[in-house]
Write a sequence for this structure.
């Protein structure tokens, strides 16, 4: 899979610009995007998910929006249904939306026992995050572009997320996060971004060896450990 | 006699310290708007000047309900809130940062966003500018100062909101998972600055809701929500109990 001279500039007066980005990486492991807030992680994922189109360049090996479903950073904002069932059905063809499937999707994210008639807006932030992950579970796309899927989850939620993603061996995963230790065991291909540019792209095992990466991501005073 | 003794400056006794209360909730039942049954019952807590406290609990345990009620956004079903909030939320009474960054931004530029809170407390223009620039510097926002906050990434928006809420120096600062979209480095810095503002007295006290155990241990007092009740006390003790009860 390859990004070829990808660049993007959001509409409006903001000065942020992504790219040009030229990176190549393996297909057989998840990709992990790291970088400070505003470095371009979400923009890259949204390009992958087909939510936005690049100003120039192309992505080789993935058809954005077709092979990939995008989980936005504030997924609860996209939940507009009157209840859990309506929100979950938004992503599947009606004939596929059996109660069993919907319940299984809820169960997979630790919301088992939650009635399908429950109003989505009555859920807590963390519960709505889990609901959004259940949406992905029902999506037919073979790849997932996940924008900080762990944000706002409690310890149990992070554990089930880690276990669940580990089970998605057939799927291609692109994940942006600040909590990289959660994904370390997947041995991801790791792309480090800063101000819209790629600082490093390497296997997770070696990427923190670069002083520039440690300085960018680790808290002040921590320089030896991987975080 | 007692009252006099408690007001002596530099009195080191714990009681005297706890007497300087900036926020207190007594035996309260809390209900989000539109709900019938209370989410939390019999909740009591207090924050004294200089307190750095953390609020823990699983997803759906009621952290947001408690913070919004403390802020005066949601009226109490039962119990007492000090200082009272007769007119609902009032930024002079408490600063509040919600876990949905875009929902709280009001201004057209980052600079204006930070100035907004300062104008609300009636600062003159010179002091407003000084305080604004100090906050922009503290949270490393100078490069973004002319940007539209709505165009920023959620992590940048979190830093803008923190700056805007710290700036007027609220008596108590209530933070609902305010660092979700920051890198560990950015999160650590933002938290250090918040604690520093408490230590130097520019804000009264801070209560942070989070799932981050490391951050929690940096706080002196802690509360854990579970089963509709709040356990409140010294951090190590409360967190030890929470761990044994599998409440986190």
């Amino acid at each position: 899979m390859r990004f070829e001279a990808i660049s993007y500039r959001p509409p409006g007066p903001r000065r942020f610009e992504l790219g040009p980005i030229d990176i190549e990486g393996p297909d057989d492991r998840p990709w992990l995007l790291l970088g400070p807030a505003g470095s371009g992680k979400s923009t890259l994922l949204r390009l992958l998910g087909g939510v936005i189109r690049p100003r120039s360049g192309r992505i080789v090996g993935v058809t954005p929006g077709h092979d990939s479903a995008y989980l936005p950073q504030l997924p609860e904002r996209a939940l507009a249904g009157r209840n859990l069932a309506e929100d979950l059905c938004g992503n599947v063809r009606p004939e596929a939306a059996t109660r069993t499937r919907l319940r299984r999707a809820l169960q997979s994210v630790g919301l088992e026992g939650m009635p399908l008639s429950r109003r989505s807006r009555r859920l807590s932030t963390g519960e709505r995050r889990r609901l959004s992950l259940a949406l992905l579970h029902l999506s037919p796309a073979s790849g997932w572009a996940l924008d900080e899927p762990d944000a706002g989850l409690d310890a149990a939620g992070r554990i089930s997320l880690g276990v669940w993603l580990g089970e998605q061996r057939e799927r291609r995963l692109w994940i942006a996060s600040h909590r990289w230790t959660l994904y370390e065991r997947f041995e991801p291909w790791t792309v480090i971004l800063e101000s819209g540019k790629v600082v490093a792209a390497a296997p997770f095992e070696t990427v923190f060896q670069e002083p520039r990466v440690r300085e960018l991501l680790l808290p002040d005073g921590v320089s030896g450990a991987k975080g | 006699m007692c009252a006099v003794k408690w007001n002596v400056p530099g009195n080191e006794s714990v009681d005297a310290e706890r007497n300087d209360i900036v926020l207190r909730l007594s035996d309260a039942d809390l209900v989000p708007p539109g709900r019938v049954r209370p989410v939390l019952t019999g909740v009591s807590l207090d924050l004294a000047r200089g307190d750095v406290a953390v609020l823990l609990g699983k997803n759906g345990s009621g952290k947001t309900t408690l913070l919004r009620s403390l802020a005066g956004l949601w009226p109490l079903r039962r119990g007492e809130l000090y200082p009272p909030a007769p007119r609902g939320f009032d930024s002079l009474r408490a600063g509040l940062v919600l876990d949905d960054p875009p929902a709280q931004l009001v201004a057209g530029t980052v600079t204006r966003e930070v100035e907004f809170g300062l104008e609300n407390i009636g600062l003159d223009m010179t002091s407003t500018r000084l305080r604004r620039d100090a906050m922009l510097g503290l949270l490393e926002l100078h490069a973004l100062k002319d940007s539209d906050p709505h165009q920023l990434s959620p992590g940048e928006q979190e830093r803008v909101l923190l700056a805007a809420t710290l700036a007027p120096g609220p008596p108590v600062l209530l933070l609902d998972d305010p660092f979700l979209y920051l890198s560990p480095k950015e999160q650590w810095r933002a938290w250090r600055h918040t604690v520093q503002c408490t230590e130097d007295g520019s804000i009264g006290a801070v209560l942070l809701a989070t799932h981050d155990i490391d951050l929690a241990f940096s706080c002196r007092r802690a509360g854990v929500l579970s089963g509709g009740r709040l356990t409140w006390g010294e951090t190590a003790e409360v967190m030890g109990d929470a761990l044994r009860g599998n409440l986190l």
